[in-house]
From TrEMBL:
Residues 1-577 form the Alanyl-transfer RNA synthetases family profile domain. It comes from Haemophilus influenzae 22.4-21. Its EC number is 6.1.1.7. This is Alanine--tRNA ligase. Zn(2+) binds at residues 432, 436, 534, 538.
Length: 616
């Protein structure tokens, strides 16, 4: 506390707290507002002094009060924190007083539970005690104080609730956080001697001990268990080999530092998150050269970027004030002014014929890639000028028209006619509407656990990734395709409404987990069958889609499957091609299409007998 908080100390005394139970910390780090008891969100932003409330578990436990040499003991445990939010720290370190100061307070629920249940550790409270006992039973452990049991009990709760909320193990974002937690738990099970998948078996016990708070997990129990089992089985295939490699490397470590190159190989080849490798190293008092690891990671990103379509990463280059006004919901052609030009990774004032560049416009009918829908193509024109737009991307709040100037020159401030390839846009819009129908059909036939995990919508086809823990049968796939085509023939109007996010959710609109939405959202409705939040371009009616045909279905990751499909004329062309292949196959076997399967089976039987008789 700072000297100005003396009145607070007096107030604490007035409610009966003895003076010896009040510990003043002050600016204990050698500078104003530099204290163990000064809380900040980061280097900048709201901040203020804080006070912490500790519970004394008694002198039978080793440890001293905060600020004493024994403060790391377990006798005194912080159960509550109160921040007096009164300053805003600027980038130069200046502290501004907030116009409306506040008190930000929070307590540790599990620590309060430990106090109320008269135990000395969070892991001894009823929830964790039951989970620890069940884990020990499953893996055959006898020492209930083993740290690995505590790690697993803690992690099963985190993982189950993340999956119930729609997170799927993956290699990026929140999906990678989940994968890291699961793999850390699996590794601790390995330490305990687990010989087979065990983690998913804790879900029923978790639901039981969480009672009313476990109803969300219970509603999706089957999916939670399947995803945990799949992820554990997938990691088990590389865990042994990875640990063997790590043991070999640790045996050769010098100066107690594991090379970043080895840590990166474990990450890249064997799926070992860095923090899992760090756990193993920490147990042997070894650190990791994280700078070398970061260099390896950056080198991999550079290689990936060099192999991409565009050598320059304009995401880190384009910085333009203002925003591009999008007019593409109603227009495919607009007059627009150039606000910026980028060539060869740099901002320029003009470009000449033959140069590839990114053109930023004040307003545009071009849709920038987002929500899985590809960016528009087309061209920009003026007197004696043609710029072929091959793609459109969004950089912050501005739209970048990526392409090549084939005629004339362009300069900042110049007006151009922006013209979208209308046919390509139309075909793309049909495929985008089809993905919404597909999503709704998947949820109706496979279950409400199905949520979108990615998509790619182009003018040629659509690709849809979704959460589904097990393979889809041919019968289910046929049902899905039939249902989508039924809704196409129903010719529902595709209705768009703008409303606030809460109203949209109340209406039943599906929001993608993790997506950021503004105060107002765009809600797309297709009859009584599909309602989703979406900012993309769509058909006017479902009947415009014409025909929907699934061409492939397969797994792309643990718990994630992918459907690729075509619509409209592309679907008709695909069916014609399949018919042509069938006809040619029938001709080869001197059959007709209707008896082709029978003829093929007869041919296989004869060939098998021939190979047997002649021992080929």
């Amino acid at each position: 506390m700072k000297p100005t908080t003396k009145p607070i100390i007096s107030g604490i005394k007035e409610v009966g707290v003895p003076a010896e139970r009040i510990i003043r910390i002050g600016d204990n780090k050698g500078a104003p507002y530099a204290s163990d008891n000064f809380w900040a969100m980061g280097d900048t932003g709201p901040c203020g002094p804080c006070t912490e409330i500790f519970y004394d578990h008694g002198d039978h436990i080793w440890g001293g009060p905060p600020g004493s040499p024994e403060e790391d003991g377990d006798r005194y445990i912080e159960i509550w924190n109160v921040v007096f939010m009164q300053f805003n720290r600027l980038a130069d370190g200046t502290m501004e007083k907030l116009p409306r100061p506040s008190v930000d307070t929070g307590m540790g629920l599990e620590r309060i539970s430990a106090v109320l249940q008269h135990v000395n550790s969070n892991y001894e409270i009823d929830i964790f005690k039951t989970l620890i006992a069940k884990t020990a039973e499953i893996v055959g452990a006898t020492d209930l104080s083993n740290k690995s049991l505590r790690v697993i009990a803690d992690h099963i709760r985190s993982c189950a609730y993340l999956i119930a909320d729609g997170v799927i193990p993956s290699n990026e974002g929140r999906g990678y956080v989940l994968r890291r937690i699961i793999r850390r738990a699996v590794r601790h099970g390995h330490l305990l001697g687990a010989k087979e998948s065990f983690f998913y078996k804790l879900v029923p016990t978790l639901i039981e001990v969480m009672a009313e708070a476990g109803k969300d997990v219970k509603a999706k129990q089957t999916n939670v268990e399947k995803l945990l089992r799949l992820e554990e089985e997938q990691f088990a295939r590389t865990l042994e080999r990875g640990l063997s490699l790590l043991d070999e490397a640790l045996a050769q470590v010098k100066d107690d530092v594991l090379s970043g190159e080895v840590a990166f190989k474990l990450y890249d080849t064997y799926g070992f998150p860095l923090d899992l490798t760090a756990d193993v190293c920490r147990e042997r008092n070894i650190t990791i050269d994280e700078q070398a690891f970061d260099r390896e990671m950056e080198a991999q990103r550079t290689r990936a970027q060099a192999a991409s379509q565009f050598g320059v990463d304009y995401n880190s280059v384009i910085r333009v004030d203002g925003e591009t006004k999008f007019e593409g919901y109603t227009e495919v052609e607009s007059q627009a002014k150039i606000t910026a030009l980028f060539y060869d990774g740099k901002s320029v004032e003009s470009i000449e014929a033959g140069q590839s560049a990114v053109v930023i416009l004040e307003n545009t009918p071009f849709y920038a890639e987002s929500g899985g829908q590809i960016g528009d193509s087309g061209y920009l024109s003026a007197q004696g000028v043609t710029f072929n737009v091959k793609d459109t991307q969004k950089y912050g709040q501005v739209f970048g028209h990526i392409g090549e100037l084939t005629q004339g020159s362009l300069k900042v401030g110049q007006s151009v006619n922006a013209i979208v390839d209308a046919k390509r846009r139309h075909n793309t819009s049909l495929n985008h509407s089809a993905t919404h129908l597909l999503h709704a059909a998947l949820r109706q036939i496979l279950g409400l656990h199905v949520v979108q995990k990615g998509s790619l919508v182009s003018d040629k086809a659509l690709r849809f990734d979704f959460a589904q823990p097990e393979a889809i049968t041919k019968e289910q796939l046929s049902e899905i395709e039939t249902l989508v085509n039924q809704k196409i023939r129903a010719n529902f109007p595709v209705q768009t409404d703008i409303m606030d996010i809460d109203s949209a959710k109340a209406k039943g609109a599906m929001a993608l987990f993790g997506e950021k939405y503004g105060d107002k959202v765009r809600v797309l409705t297709m009859g009584d069958f599909s309602i989703e939040l979406c900012g993309g371009i769509h058909a006017k009616r479902t009947g415009d889609i014409g025909l929907f045909k699934i061409i492939t279905e397969n797994a792309v990751a643990a718990g994630i499957r992918r459907i690729e499909a075509v619509t409209g004329q592309n679907a008709i062309d695909w069916l014609h091609n399949q018919q042509r292949i069938l006809t040619q196959s029938a001709d080869l076997l001197k059959s007709d299409v209707n008896t082709l399967v029978e003829k093929s089976n007869n041919f296989k039987t004869k060939r098998r007998k021939w190979k047997k008789n002649y021992k080929v």
